[in-house]
Amino acid sequence: NINRLTVLANMGKVQVIGLEKAAGELSEVSAALRSVMEGR
Length: 40
Known about the structure:
The protein has 2 helices and no strands. By secondary structure, it is mainly α. The protein has helices at about 1-10, 20-35. It is about 70% helix and about 0% strand.
C-alpha cells in the first residue's frame, strides 16, 4: 500500500533506492490494469 510506504518513509523506517525503477514498474502495472478495465 503506497500510503503505508509513505508513512514508513516519513518515519525514517524505509528508504527508497532506485525510485526510477519503481516508478517504471508502477507505470507498467497501471497500463496493465487499464487494459484489463478496458476489456482488452
